[in-house]
Each structure stands twice: as structure tokens, then as C-alpha cells.
Design a protein that fits this description.
The radius of gyration is 18 Å and the shape is globular. The chain is about 50% helix and about 15% strand. It is an alpha/beta fold and about 325 residues long. Helix 6 links the parallel strand 4 and strand 5. The relative contact order is 0.16. The chain has 2 domains: about 220 residues, Rossmann fold, CATH 3.40.50.1100; about 90 residues, 3-Layer(aba) Sandwich (Rossmann fold). The strands form 2 sheets. A 6-stranded mixed beta sheet has the order 1-2-10-7-8-9, with helices on both faces. A 4-stranded parallel beta sheet has the order 5-4-3-6, sandwiched between helices. The N and C termini lie far apart (about 45 Å). It contains 14 helices and 10 strands. The model has no long low-confidence stretch (mean pLDDT about 95).
């Protein structure tokens, strides 16, 4: 488990390496949902997503080993770029294990930061290979099941409280649960805020785990590829049980409709893994009143043009 003190320490540690992203109120969305709606614009974070927070926190704590033996990570895209970028800045060799189905823009960006990329057909194979590298001495930066990674991601929650001290509700996407865990601990350790978890159909490992009472293996099929963890961990499941008000599972079509709305009305281009928070808030609008202050975490914006066009044609054209 992680504590508020862990997250505050992480904030000081990573401050020189990450951006402090803005949280802005949207008049349009506020009118639509009947409450004060804010967007946490992590899409403008370095590498385009929140993942650099956890990557830097983990590597900085174990920097001597990372520089000596290198760093390895498994990722569907955003974590890959984060670890590659952190490794480049901190002088570490990085090896990133990705799937053959990873979109080209993620591959190009990861290699652009100097990482060696090895691709696999199955995510389980990638994790097994990462453990081999770890046994050989490399520092394994897990995408979510690591207290240092979770504490780094939680720094985003501290910023939300600073920018919207009156916050009543936060919507957060869940892949493996690292961001949810860090943000929930950071916020609810200081204020009684409702944390609403969000997943997409086909990337709903946490919802299934909560139903079963234990982590469940899934084969992700959603277009929200950066939510495609094959399972959550016992730790992130425990934090979800303690802190989440609920989980809303939206369809890929709903996520794309929300993505289009965000792009057209707020000019923010997100991934489906981020726009799904708006889709969930629209479903949950009956829980809001005019005095509520609702933050939607837009966790990432690394959507390639080809994928955007493909998803638009599939889900939004009549």
C-alpha cells in the first residue's frame, strides 16, 4: 500500500522532470451535466500521458542499479514512452516489450527516445520475458503494480486538490489501477471525495475483479488499448474496494462519442482511454447538482491520426 507521505515525497522527487498540468473548468460541459466540470489536462504532460510521473519516481529511487544494468518495461504504449523518456534523461539503457498490435505512433515515439523495442504476440509472453531480464539484473518498471509507480501517479491527485480545493467528484480511468490507486490515496487522504472508476468494454479487468472478489485474467479487446491490462493486481484491487464509489464500464462507441465532443467543444484531443471518463460522467449525471465540482482526468492524448480516422469511420459515421 502507499501513503499520502509517499506521494508527497514523490512529488518533490520528480518535480524537475515532469510538467505540472492544468485543471480547467469547461463551461460547455458544465452546462451539459448540470455541475461544475473540470478537465485535468494530463494530455499535455511530457510524452502525452501521466505515466512519466511513476516512471521517474521508480527509476530515480533505484537510479544506481538502473544506470548499471538498464531498465525493462512492458507496455501498450504510454508506459513505454514514459520509461524510454525517463531512461534517456537519466542515462539508462531501456528495453521495452510491446505487442505486435501496438499502434505505429507508440512504437515510433518509444524508439525515438532511444529504447530498444521487442514485440510479442501475447502480453503474458512479454511479462515473462521482463521477469527474465529482471532476474538478470535489470530494473523492472511495472506499469502499475509497484508502490513507487503508484506514488508517482498519485502526484496528479495532489495537483487536483491544489487547483480545485472544492472538488467533490473525480472520474479516473482504470487499466491496471496504478493511476486510480495513487490519485485515490492522494485525494481521499485529505478530503471526502467520490472517486468514480471508469473502464471500457473489453478492458474491464477491475470491474470483473470486483465482481469475482479477486484478480481475473482477461484478453483485452477494446480500442482503449492503453487500458488493456490483462489483469489488475491484489494491491490495486484492494485500493479500489476501499476508495471507489463505483466503476462504470462504457462502450467503445460511447468513448468515441465523448472523444469527438471533447475535441469539438474543448479542443482537447484525447485517447479513448481518457475520453471514457466523460462518457461515464454523462451516464452518471443524475448524481450531480449545481454545487458539485467534478474533475475528469484526461490521462493521455497519444492517439495517432490513422487510428482516429479508423475509429471515426467505425463508430461515428452514420
Amino acid at each position: 500500500m502507499i501513503s499520502l507521505a509517499d506521494i508527497r515525497t514523490a512529488q518533490e522527487r520528480i518535480r524537475p522532470y515532469v510538467k505540472r498540468t492544468a485543471t480547467v473548468r469547461s463551461r460547455t460541459l458544465s452546462e451539459m451535466l448540470g455541475a461544475n466540470i473540470y478537465l485535468k489536462l494530463e494530455i499535455f504532460q511530457t510524452t502525452g500521458a501521466f505515466k512519466v510521473r511513476g516512471a521517474f519516481n521508480k527509476i530515480l529511487v533505484e537510479l544506481d542499479a538502473a544506470r548499471k544494468n538498464g531498465v525493462v518495461a512492458v507496455s501498450g504504449g504510454n508506459h513505454a514512452q514514459a520509461v524510454a523518456y525517463a531512461g534517456k534523461l537519466l542515462g539508462c539503457r531501456t528495453v521495452i516489450l510491446m505487442l505486435h498490435t501496438t499502434p505505429r505512433n507508440y512504437l515510433d515515439a518509444t524508439r525515438g527516445y532511444g529504447a530498444e523495442v521487442i514485440q510479442f504476440d501475447d502480453i503474458s509472453q512479454a511479462f515473462a520475458k521482463a521477469r527474465e531480464y529482471e532476474r538478470a539484473g535489470m530494473l523492472f518498471v511495472h506499469p502499475f503494480d509497484d508502490p513507487l509507480v503508484m506514488a508517482g501517479q498519485g502526484t496528479l491527485g495532489l495537483e487536483i486538490l491544489e487547483d480545485v480545493p472544492e472538488v467533490t467528484d473525480v472520474f479516473v480511468s482504470i487499466g491496471g489501477g496504478g493511476l486510480m490507486s495513487g490519485a485515490a490515496v492522494a485525494i481521499r487522504s485529505q478530503k471526502n471525495v467520490r472517486i468514480w472508476g471508469v473502464e471500457t468494454e473489453g478492458a474491464d479487468a477491475m470491474a470483473r475483479a470486483l465482481d469475482a472478489g479477486h484478480p481475473v485474467e482477461i484478453r483485452p479487446t477494446s480500442i482503449a488499448k492503453t487500458l488493456g491490462a490483462p489483469a489488475v493486481s491484489e494491491t490495486t484491487l484492494g485500493i479500489a474496494k476501499e476508495h471507489l464509489a463505483s466503476i462504470t464500464v462504457v462502450s467503445d462507441r460511447e468513448a468515441m462519442q465523448a472523444l469527438a465532443l471533447l475535441l469539438e467543444r474543448t479542443k482537447a484531443l484525447t485517447e479513448p482511454a481518457a475520453s471514457c471518463t466523460l462518457a461515464a460522467a454523462m451516464r452518471m449525471k443524475q448524481h450531480f447538482r449545481p454545487e458539485h465540482h467534478v474533475v475528469l482526468i484526461l490521462c493521455g492524448g497519444n492517439l495517432g491520426l490513422s487510428d482516429l480516422c479508423e475509429y471515426h469511420a467505425k463508430f461515428l459515421k452514420s
